[in-house]
Amino acid sequence: MPTSSFLARRRLLLALCAAPAAALAQAPSWPVRPIKLVVPYPPGGLTDVLARLVTQRASENLGQAIVIENRPGASTILGAELVARAAPDGYTFLMAAATTLTTNPLLFKKLPYRPADFAPVALVGTVPFALVAHPSVPANNIREFVAHAKANPGLMTFSTVGQGASSHLVGEMFKGATQTTLRDIPYKGSAPALAAVLSGEVHATFDGITNYLPYARSGKLKILAVFSDNRVPAADTIPTMAESGYPDAVAYSWFGIVAPAGTPAAIVNRLNQAINSSLQAPELRDRLRADVSSGPILSPEGYGDFMRKQALIWEKVITPLKLEMTQ
Predict the structure, then answer these.
(1) Residues whose CB is less than 8 angstroms from the CB of residue 58 and which lie 6 or more positions away in sequence, other chains included
(2) Number of structural domains found in the chain
(3) What CA–CA distance (Å, rounded) separates 154 from 239?
(4) Residue 242, burial from CB neighbour count under 10 angstroms (0-12, 13-18, 19+)
(5) What is the tens place of the pLDDT at every residue in 97-154?
(6) Does 261 lie in the same domain as 192?
(7) Residues in Cβ contact with 282 at an 8 Å cutoff, skipping those fewer than 6 apart
(8) pTM (whole model) above 0.90
(9) Residue 45 — φ and ψ, nearest 5°?
(10) Is residue 274 part of a domain?
(11) Tell me: the pLDDT tens digits for 247-259?
């Protein structure tokens, strides 16, 4: 039979083994206080609106408020740097955009963060880019536009919001795919760039389709093609670039949530589930589709793969341009 000293040692060993489990059981589960989501854009823009829409329901799923903190500036660099340096404790996240993690690292020689400083959480939405033209342009589809541009080399113009901006990069993608020589005309902001094509000061522009649908429906502009894999449900009469003969011309503006690298996987997975559940709620899903900003429902790993593929697409466009941006 076991001796009394043996039984005593056994009880002590069992108690020591049980202590961590008991402590873990008593530890508070995440989240126990409000969560901060940094949006690197001003209030009222598409990224900000999407962040507020999706986090409203997600906060209900989590039982804690998700507080939006707008930190605009320097091509999203200010907000991204703040989150990259935050503690990976599950209480600070970033509403990232394609600019933040797929084009900035290719454009800026010195960045205060790297893509590896973030852990993917959830994709929130994608908006396909589109080629938008003034009604005076003698083209009603991509083939006619390309033919007109080639017949007038260097004379066709498109508005941008500056070198390295998405409106510029998508235009460069188009030029490379179609072998045309359009001239980009930079403007100080998206509103002047839109006004330029509305007035006919420039022939065209390349931007997210969302902002241009009302003008196309009223006849003030015409959308010749979308740079998406499939037609957009909210504008299903507009063909894709692939349908027009350019299968490699696919480009999206996208938005998603990332965490500081090192954030526990359990927290990342729980927030992913809360965000994805919100995106699948009928009222929010229909709202996003109406705004042409829906996207696939992805796991954190799937979202990471999506970002890596996007980076490769833009690397092919940006590298030949030899752009080096400064903050």
Answers:
(1) 66, 271, 274, 275, 277, 278
(2) 2
(3) 26
(4) middle
(5) 999 999 999 999 889 999 999 999 999 999 999 999 999 999 999 999 999 999 999 9
(6) no
(7) none
(8) no
(9) -80, 175
(10) yes
(11) 999 999 999 999 9
